[in-house]
Design a protein that fits this description.
Length: 325
């Protein structure tokens, strides 16, 4: 929906679109953004987090006078206070492509900082029954790999069949607190990390791309670091989620001294759950707990006639919590 030219001509295309931005708590900080273009293409993000994936619908129509859009955003996809009559912040953008023009409903000057502090007000919002929606997404994944193997390899055959079962769960504990859980998740659809050569004693840092860990990650974010006179520095983060479900730590050590090995591709996540949201007193809450299974690797060395076993990753529990006011 946005053209930045970073992907050649495809990403240089431009389009009309209508954007509705809501600040349900009216704290002049939150931005729940919903956008639609004339072709019905939808986009959404929460406070800049594009991993946010709410369930909502939109319909568009193009006629001789232009185009119209109707959007349906369920209360269950938003987080708001428990007041009987509520005051929300709201902003509406209209992108008119042929004029290279962007119009806003609640105006601010080009010299202003902008953002939720300049939103207009949506008054008289009355919400009767509080939504307590439960979403379940089970999955079954099967795959078979055909490969050429060494005849002396005792661990692998010409075919490798795998079956995985898991699921995701989302439940609204209250109108402003959400529980997300996943069991034996599969992230096979996630973009593969770029190949790197790390000769340092420190682990390689990879960006988080898994949907479960991206959604609501702002609750655990401690911000960045700005320095006008620094070089060779990076932001400091207290929580690095890519360690959850990583490649077993001793796998490379086993590979270095074995002739054949039955190495796991990753450390399976047995289950993970997190609670995110904002309380009525203005506290932003983020709690996450994850359990990964133990992984044992079988391998064969030139000096050992029988296969050996080595635990390459222990049964682990990861917990992180953050509260900010």
């Amino acid at each position: 929906l946005d053209a930045n030219g970073n992907n050649g001509s495809f990403n240089s295309l431009t389009t009309d679109k209508l954007v509705v931005v809501l600040d349900p708590y009216h704290n002049r900080r939150d931005e729940a953004l919903f956008e639609v273009n004339p072709a019905g293409v939808r986009g959404d993000q929460l406070n800049g987090d594009q991993g946010w994936d709410p369930i909502w619908t939109a319909a568009t129509k193009i006629d001789s006078l232009g185009w119209t859009v109707e959007m349906r955003i369920p209360y269950s996809q938003l987080r708001f206070s428990r007041e009987s009559v509520q005051l929300w912040g709201m902003q509406i953008w209209r992108y008119e492509d042929r004029l290279n023009e962007r119009d806003m409903w609640s105006y601010w000057r080009r010299s202003d900082a902008g953002g939720p502090a300049y939103f207009g007000e949506l008054t008289g919002v009355r919400i009767g029954a509080r939504p307590r929606q439960l979403e379940l997404l089970p999955y079954v994944l099967s795959g078979e790999q055909l490969q050429h193997v060494n005849a002396n390899d005792p661990f692998h055959g010409r075919t490798d069949t795998r079956v995985r079962v898991g699921g995701d769960l989302k439940y609204l504990l209250t109108s402003n607190l959400t529980l997300d859980a996943t069991f034996y998740p599969d992230f096979g659809q996630v973009e593969v990390d770029p190949a790197t050569l790390n000769l340092s004693p420190f682990e390689t840092f990879y960006d988080e791309k898994r949907p479960f860990f991206i959604a609501g990650s702002s609750a655990f974010d401690f911000g960045g670091m700005n320095c006008n006179f620094c070089s060779n520095t990076s932001s400091l983060s207290l929580f690095y989620s890519r360690r959850i479900g990583r490649l077993p730590q001793l796998s490379d050590w086993v590979q270095g001294q074995s002739t054949f090995a039955d190495a796991p591709d990753y450390t399976p996540i047995i289950g993970a759950a997190k609670i995110t949201g904002r309380t009525n007193n203005g506290y932003i809450v983020g709690l996450l707990d994850a359990v990964t299974s133990s992984q044992t690797e079988r391998y064969l060395t030139a000096s050992a006639p029988t296969p050996l076993k080595q635990e390459v990753e222990p049964l682990s529990n990861y917990f992180v919590g953050r509260v900010q006011k």
